[in-house]
Design brief:
By secondary structure, this protein is α/β, with parallel strands linked by helices. The protein folds into 2 domains: 5-152, VC0802-like (2-Layer Sandwich); 155-337, 3-Layer(aba) Sandwich (Rossmann fold). It is built from 10 helices and 15 strands.
């Protein structure tokens, strides 16, 4: 059996609890193991192992609330031999201190590793290196060498802000949180995702970009048309979008099962609920669509709070409040079915 790769994910600092929940879902979907030493709630570096570099790169491409993913080369002593073996003539590399990416390379450990790399035929390029290495630890005794698998392209994610899409509303879910929610739903190739309150389509866009087959429903036909425009703008046209009362459509739906329900529940005075109180609407609609979710699937709900709209056998497994702006807070919840022991 091939040895698994040891990785570390550097989480971003917006909402660490949500970042950890996103990473846990990704680890489940990618069959990765999170180290028990990384279970401290406030920890912003999470250790995990994966089968191979392909899975590691997939993690980089999917995760939202993180800065970068690195693989562990080894301690000061063991890293030297591996570094020399991997250095090839003409291949460029950079060496920097973890946590101090712009600091000058005067640290003796940086100098030492750079010399090893050059002795194997490699070159040093701090601006556009082919490989990026990081030195971690407060001193030589505790030093480790890490190599960057990839940095999360947070700029590309933020380029999908609602204000930059063809159809927008005054308040929209930040795309980095929408991507995190899609990851909580395990959106990916071969998986079917439904959003019973599609709105501007922010959540479905992220799920579709992750490769999922998506279906959206909204009572407001303007929202359906706008969501279609937004999905086309991000390069995912052709999603199934249904206009009409979401509860009635759920009862009529016969086209198979979904792997997850993913939705940002209506909120605010501008929400098109037909005069129905939002809490009543959610309580009426969500259980109907949840029946269309496979036994091992999940419901991911972004909500203003309040009681759980789903009852047994559904149970809430994740609950993270995130302040959007001013007094607006949205709670990210994950529901999964309880496993019967009988």
């Amino acid at each position: 059996m091939n040895a698994r790769l040891e990785l570390e994910v550097e989480l971003s600092g917006e909402v660490v609890e949500l970042a950890r929940a996103e990473l846990a879902s990704l680890a489940e979907g990618l069959v990765a193991s999170i180290s028990s030493e990384s279970t401290r709630p406030a920890a912003r570096i999470v250790a995990l192992d994966v089968a191979d570099m392909e899975v590691a790169r997939e993690l980089v491409a999917r995760v939202s609330l993180a800065h970068r993913v690195v693989r562990v080369i080894g301690s000061e002593a063991t890293a030297e031999e591996r570094l020399l073996a991997e250095s090839k003539r003409g291949v460029s590399a950079s060496f920097r201190l973890r946590g101090h990416p712009t600091a000058p390379g005067s640290d003796p450990r940086i100098h030492r590793f750079a010399q090893i790399w050059k002795s194997g035929g490699g070159t040093i390029d701090l601006d556009h290196p082919a490989r990026r290495f990081w030195v971690d630890g407060s001193d030589i005794a505790s030093s480790r060498l890490l190599e960057e698998v990839g940095a999360v392209d947070r700029g590309a994610i933020q380029a999908r802000r609602i204000s930059r899409l063809p159809f927008s509303r005054p308040v929209g879910l930040d795309p980095k949180f929408a991507r995190a929610a899609a990851n909580l739903a395990l959106a990916g190739p071969g998986r079917r995702i439904v959003d019973p309150f599609v709105g501007t389509g922010a959540l479905l866009a992220e799920a579709a970009l992750l490769g999922a087959d998506v279906t959206g429903v909204d009572v407001d036909l303007e929202m359906i048309r706008g969501a279609a425009r937004n999905l086309e703008a991000v390069g995912r046209p052709g999603a199934r979008l249904l206009g009409g009362d979401s509860g009635m459509l759920a009862e009529q739906f016969t086209d198979g099962w979904f792997d997850a329900l993913l939705t940002d529940a209506p909120y605010g005075r501008a929400s098109g609920t037909g005069g129905e109180p939002v809490s009543d609407l959610i309580a009426r609609v969500l259980p109907l669509w949840a029946r269309r979710v496979r036994d091992d699937g999940r419901v991911v709900l972004v909500t203003a709070g309040g009681p759980d709209p789903l009852s047994e056998p559904w149970r809430r497994t994740v609950s993270v409040p995130v302040r959007q702006h001013r007094s607006l807070t949205r709670e990210f919840r994950v529901y999964r079915r309880s496993v019967s022991l009988t």
